[in-house]
Fold this protein.
Amino acid sequence: MKKIYLIFLGILILACGPQENVIKIGLVAPLTGDVKTFGESTKNGFLLAIEEANARGGINGKQIKTFIQDDKNDPTEATNAGSKLINQDGVKLIIGSVSSKCSIPLSQVCQDASAVMISPTSTNPKVTIRDDGSRKDFIFRACFIDPFQGMVAAKFALENLKAKTTAILYDVGNDYVKGLAEFYRDNFMKGGGQVLVYESYQKDDTDFSALLTKVKQANPDILYIPDYYNKVGLIAKQARQVGIKSILMGGDGWDSPEMLKIAGDAIVGGYFTNHYSPDDPRPEVQEWVKKYLAKYGSMPDALATLAYDATCLLLEAIKIANSDNPVKVKEALQGIKDFKSVSGNISLDEFGNPIKSAVILKYTKTGQEYVATVTP
Ligand code: PHE
């Protein structure tokens, strides 16, 4: 009897004692603001992974508690969100953020506090490395990076669309957009293509007629706009209005259920590089699509999918480390090889980047259509 009493007391102390009996995981994403569909999808994918893990009994016998912060797609909000999670909530394992312009400053906050951060979708190289090229060793991601994405787009334009000329318009204040524009440009030229127009605009611009007049005069085969859907929708519409006939192309930032609503017919026939396609017949993808549809009533986009993958990757590392200590978790992450993910298996290289394939998708009148897969 005494023994049972002692065991009971022990469990009680463990449950209520000073040490945390939950694993805390944070999320930073743009839940409001100009790209809020990115945040909504990201949150859905994140929560689904956590719910599944908790339903299976948690990780290492502990339940997971989530802490969610909105960065509004604003770099200052992102650093504030990171500081709040780390200093007020005591969270040292963070999924986020979505856009590179938020993930780059957030990564510095996490690295300085020795907190693990995995960005599901930020593709700019500088998320995991400093300006001098050195590695931020607490920072990882679940997606490919933009030197690859730009190369895939240029190759597709030159080889599949037989393009000879291109124009490129980009937001000079957005790390992702500016970076992807450069990577695409360099690869397009290396492949023998000609860049006829290379012009920048600012984040708050809404009238692109001056730039589009130049594009119209140059009449390129491709107009490459590697921005997010809200801006691309606007530019695409104005491009068609001034009579530009070029094929429109862009990157993963085009992926949104809002794109067709904003751009209408202007974007139909446009191609973009992305991380995954729900039409991929792999069983991992088909199971995921079914599961997501049942829970949320919509198709999972790349943001939801990569948030799910990034969260599962973090949970796997916590399991391998048998601890939620961020130093042990980052060591476990660095050693992960061939982790089975919906968007393709993940092995992290020395810079915390997975090597993964890209898909090319095309906008049709009703949605997106799978065109091709490009392996690294
Ligand atoms: N890759 C984008 C960035 O780094 C974010 C993004 C990913 C947007 C996937 C849409 C879809 O900023």
Notes: The longest helix spans residues 36-55. The pocket of phenylalanine is lined by residues 38, 98-100, 121-124, 176, 252-253, 255, 302-303 (CB under 6 Å).
